[in-house]
Specification:
This protein is mainly α and about 325 residues long. The protein has one domain. It contains 13 helices and four strands. It has a four-stranded mixed beta sheet, with no helix packed on it. α6 packs across α12 and α8 packs across α10. It is globular and about 60 Å long. The C terminus is likely disordered.
């Protein structure tokens, strides 16, 4: 960050899957708010708006030139000029920890879910934060995906290394692989945000071995796709079932606040034959006021290299294509 460059030169994505965006774009608004937090956004007029060079791999980008990305303003009281530039997050005066948390949630644009997330026990607080962000940003995620993410996190707590190694899968679904990769990139992004905000949450809660296992997620994903009950997903464990419904409620209620209703994959198909997404169903919470309708495929149409991005160019992703066969 001190040199104005950041890179992620590898990813695990299916370039032919038109229903899921690249992690490079899903988490770009979060990174832009971190840039604003650490480098300033230029709105005070005293200094020009900084530009960060991003070397992020995605389909069609040969990484010959960086994407030039500007900071994204955060509308949180008390965050102007904060960050390590004036050491305001390093001090231990009363109220600083609350400001750190406000900044973290502001980076994910989840300030309205502060109370609900604070009530979630660790390490699921971080998981819920990411799931809310992902499901608000990516309209092609469905109820079955949410069930698989939550069930695997709960079941992981009771699995030994030997049990995880011995898991056998009927087959490999490319979409499940990409979803798992998307969540893991979210965890690394959360590490970046947490450190930039002065560590309001414990870093250990973001470590994948506490909340995510790729093979276990794949198993739960395949089961959810086949229509297995929630009880089956949590392996008939009553305690897990109670926690499952509690975590699901937190994510769904937060999404409803953003006009995002999570429905099952089959229900979505029946309501919108041949399509997935909520065209024209709302607008992003930035000051631009742009509707998401018509902006669903911006991430595929950009081309690559040496471009300068303004903050308002990054909207929620809403696919206008059907589910992959």
């Amino acid at each position: 960050m001190s040199s104005g460059e950041i890179e992620c030169s590898n990813t695990l994505e299916d370039a032919l899957d038109q229903a899921l965006p690249s992690q490079a774009f899903v988490y770009r608004p979060v990174r832009q708010r971190v840039y604003a937090l650490l480098l300033g956004d230029g709105r005070d007029g005293a200094s020009p708006c900084p530009t960060v060079k991003e070397w992020f791999v995605y389909s069609g980008n040969p990484l010959r030139h960086p994407d030039l990305v500007r900071p994204l303003q955060m509308n949180i009281p008390g965050t102007d000029g904060l960050g390590y530039g004036n050491h305001s997050f390093v001090h231990q005066e009363p109220g600083v920890q609350g400001r750190r948390l406000d900044a973290l949630l502001g980076c994910f644009d989840l300030s309205s879910s502060r109370e609900e997330l604070q009530a979630v026990e660790s390490p699921f607080k971080a998981l819920c934060c990411l799931l809310i962000y992902l499901f608000v940003q990516v309209d092609t995620l469905c109820l079955e995906d949410l069930h698989a993410f939550i069930a695997q996190a709960l079941c992981l707590q009771g699995k030994s290394t030997v049990q995880l190694v011995d898991l056998q899968l009927d087959y490999i679904d490319p979409r499940a692989v990409q979803l798992g990769s998307l969540l893991v990139r979210g965890l690394t992004t959360l590490v970046l945000v947490n450190s930039a905000c002065g560590f309001p949450w414990r870093t250990s809660d973001f470590m994948p071995w506490n909340v995510f296992d790729g093979k276990l997620f794949h198993q739960k994903y395949l089961q959810a796709e086949k229509g297995h009950s929630v009880e089956a997903l949590v392996e008939q464990n009553r305690s897990r079932l109670t926690k499952f419904h509690a975590l699901k409620s937190v994510v769904c209620k937060a999404c409803v606040k953003e006009n995002r209703r999570i429905v099952s994959r089959q229900h979505g198909r029946s309501q919108q034959p041949g399509r997935w997404g909520r065209q024209g169903s709302g607008s992003h919470r930035t000051s631009s006021g742009y509707s998401r309708a018509g902006h669903g495929q911006h991430w595929r149409d950009q081309g690559a290299g040496n471009r300068q991005y303004e903050p308002d160019h990054w909207r929620r992703y809403s696919s206008s294509s059907g589910w992959p066969n």
